UniProtKB/TrEMBL annotation, chain A:
The chain crosses the membrane at residues 20-44, 65-83, 95-115, 155-179, 199-222. This is Amino acid ABC transporter permease. Residues 23-218 form the ABC transmembrane type-1 domain. Its main location: membrane. It comes from Actinoallomurus spadix.
UniProtKB/TrEMBL annotation, chain B:
Keywords: Signal, Transport. It comes from Actinoallomurus spadix. This is Glutamate ABC transporter substrate-binding protein. Pfam families: SBP_bac_3 (PF00497). CDD domains: PBP2_GluB.
Length: 229, 284
């Protein structure tokens, strides 16, 4: 047994600058997708509980389609489909173009999960709240914005945290949308050094550095913002 | 706390146990001995490179496969049924050789200084060059230097694009091409045809295979700028097999098989054949 090979962490140390920039790419895309998917997910939820039937059906169709399609396919459609075949380009600079295509694919995918969490949150708001909002003369949009959504959001912070953690881990497949991040660097390092255990461990720890604090933050936020009934 | 300590000790013991059993299982027979004894030998090849190593419905075919069969025969393997082909991707070639999953790797395996400490290389059995593939109507890219500012497909887990951007080529030229990451060369070809990249660069043999398949929309520039020596990867230290492989390669060139195989797979791609056997790198 060659212990030197098994415990040789030098490839990680030698490439520390590349590692940092690769993980920075993950953070960039995660933050952008996090914000966009929350906005889009909220809109979809509003559609799903709206009094207009067409909107409800459209919302349900969106969620059921995106939630049941593999992310790789969504991203492939964005890069190979939209950009390479249909020639829909967001920018002429490839790095910007593919960054936003990857963001687009991941956001529409994650939004479906955000919408489902949020809809569960709406169900925790007592019926009396909506009725009271109607009784004082608020319109649907007003009651959703001022009464229902604030309470629904506070109830689902912890599940939204899980959605966000899953989203951060999903960034490892954005290479199919031609966006270079940590998992792509790992592949490059496997080519250069062979697939060794230390490289695996290094990248696993790297991802835990991103996901663990996210989990702690959402748990803390959930406790702090919990609706006391 | 005690439970936790016990867990650590148990894990350490398990790892140590794996190490010891790994040593005990080590066999001293070389691949050459194995082949002579009539045992099955396992050869790692590519499954996704047209004309080199490509999985088809009935098996695998390509230049590397034919070379593998020839070398195996020279090592003493009686017939093809004693050869088992196994897919070896670029990333797991070293590991497969180290842990004995395969006996030999013939999978577009370039002999590089970085790999030599881990692998014993027989050969090279052929020397190819890195080249460029562009759209057929694109006349702006004619050489390595003209790639400056152009969009270059950068396959993750392949070092071909680094030879351009980091200057590890014959001209020692660092060319500032705009890299577009991709998963594989298959994807690069789609991007090339769609205009998301302007050039795809890797070994001429691989590009030739794609050029034959794709036909008119793409062309190979024919501006070689590296030497890629494809070697036969063996477990580190197996010099006996290495010498036998080198003899086999020498006879492959002297009896004309090399030329015949090259023409069988690359004639349509107009790849020139170098008739002199490449000088062996030496077994270590």
């Amino acid at each position: 047994m060659n212990w030197n090979v098994l415990l040789d962490f030098s490839p990680l140390a030698d490439n520390s600058d590349k590692l940092l920039s690769a993980f920075w790419a993950n953070i960039r895309i995660s933050v952008t997708v996090g914000i966009l998917s929350l906005v889009l997910g909220t809109l979809i939820t509003a559609m799903r509980v709206s009094p207009v039937r067409v909107l409800r059906v459209a919302g349900a169709f969106y969620v059921n389609t995106l939630r049941n399609t593999p992310l790789t396919l969504v991203l492939l459609f964005c890069s190979l489909g939209l950009s390479d075949t249909l020639k829909f380009r967001i920018s002429h600079t490839p790095s910007i173009n593919f960054f936003w295509l990857a963001v687009l694919g991941m956001s529409v995918y994650t939004a479906a999960f955000v919408a489902e969490s949020l809809r569960a949150g709406i169900n925790t708001v007592p019926m009396g709240q909506a009725e009271a909002a109607r009784a004082i003369g608020l319109t649907f949009t007003q009651s959703l914005r001022m009464v229902i959504m604030p309470q629904a959001f506070r109830a689902v912070i912890a599940p939204l945290g899980s959605v966000m953690i899953a989203m951060i881990k999903n960034t490892t497949v954005v290479l199919v949308a031609s966006y270079y991040e940590a998992a792509s660097l790992m592949k490059d390092m496997f080519e250069q050094y062979g697939a060794t255990l230390p490289i695996f461990i290094g990248f696993a720890v790297g991802f835990m550095c991103l996901t663990l604090p996210t989990g702690f933050f959402f748990n803390w936020l959930a406790k702090r913002m919990a609706v006391v009934r | 706390m005690r439970v936790r300590h016990f867990g650590v000790v148990a894990a350490a013991l398990a790892v140590a146990g794996m190490g010891i059993s790994g040593c005990a299982a080590k066999k001293n027979t070389t691949v050459a001995d194995k082949a002579k004894d009539g045992k099955k030998i396992v050869i790692g090849v590519k499954y996704d490179q047209p004309a080199l190593g490509m999985k088809t419905g009935s098996g695998v075919e390509g230049f590397d496969i034919d070379v593998a069969k020839y070398i195996a025969k020279k090592l003493g393997v009686k017939d093809d049924s004693k050869i088992e082909f196994k897919e070896a991707r670029s990333a797991n070639r070293e590991t497969f050789l180290q842990n004995g999953t395969v006996d030999m790797v013939i999978a577009t395996y370039s002999i590089t200084d970085a790999r030599k400490p881990k692998v014993t290389f027989g050969g090279p059995y052929v020397v190819t060059h890195q080249d460029l593939m562009v759209r057929a109507n694109d006349n702006s890219i004619t050489s390595l230097q003209s790639l400056k500012g152009k969009k270059l497909c950068a396959v993750s887990g392949s070092n071909s694009w680094k030879n351009i951007t980091e200057g590890t080529n014959k001209l020692n030229a660092k060319v500032a091409a705009v890299t577009v990451p991709a998963q594989g060369y298959e994807e690069c070809i789609t991007k090339l045809k769609g205009g998301s990249v302007d050039a795809v660069s890797t070994d001429a043999t691989i590009l030739g295979g794609f050029a034959v398949r794709e036909g008119s929309p793409v062309k190979v520039v024919n501006a070689p700028f590296t030497d890629e020596k494809y070697g036969v990867g063996l477990k580190k230290g197996d010099t006996k097999t290495c010498n036998a492989v080198n003899d086999a390669i020498k006879s492959m060139y002297s009896d004309g098989t090399a030329k015949q195989l090259w023409e069988k797979w690359f004639a349509k791609a107009n790849l020139p054949f170098d008739a002199t056997a490449p000088a062996p790198e030496g077994c270590s």
